[in-house]
Amino acid sequence: MAGSFDAAAELYERARPSYPQQAVDWLLESAPRRVLDLGAGTGKLTRLLAGRVDVLYAVDPSPNMLAQLADAVPQAIIAVGAAEAIPLPDGSVDAVLVAQAWHWVDPARALPEVRRVLAPRGVLGLIWNVRDESVPWVAELTRIIHGSEAERFVANDQPLPTELGPIGRLVVRWERPFDRQSLLELVGSRSYVISAPPDERAAIMRGVDDLLDNHPALQDEANWRLPYRTEAFRIRLA
Q: What is the bridge-based pairing of β-strands 93-99 and 77-80?
């Protein structure tokens, strides 16, 4: 399913949010000089790293996503690859950061690769933006559009790679303004919707329209805000 993003790279770039600066600062607290953005996609995280490190690598399996990244972050050293086969030499980076992507990897194959490319005392940082479903209308939105792999992974406390070392965790709550078009594009950028049959995709979009038109909490269009919870995890090699 992760491969579905290749055909929707422009939509993904336009619709998906960035990450809170507080969370990025926390991931970079060890001041790494050589950083790999693994599963970098269109560079939502990569552009927040640019100018803060000496060497910035970006690896993703999607050439179309990386084309978007190259335009946004020309100083990044880009390569097609995956967490299970990272195209970098041993010990070549001080930190591997994975934004909105660890739930797609095979940990049994990815963890040895992460360990291989990290220098001693290197850091693995994982980060996700997930919608705050404690807000009733957001929970209804999830029911309409179906929960994502990322949301299920974080909500269910899926196993994280404790064998690398102790795990630190940071949660940042924030809101993103939206309008009808941007929310529909956000929904359309999800892997489930991208790969759904046309009639199911259309039904999902109609459901989102109905939610925006009829939910009591969404009557003031000028103040539409989508609440997020950013979950960040930091693991230093033992």
A: unpaired
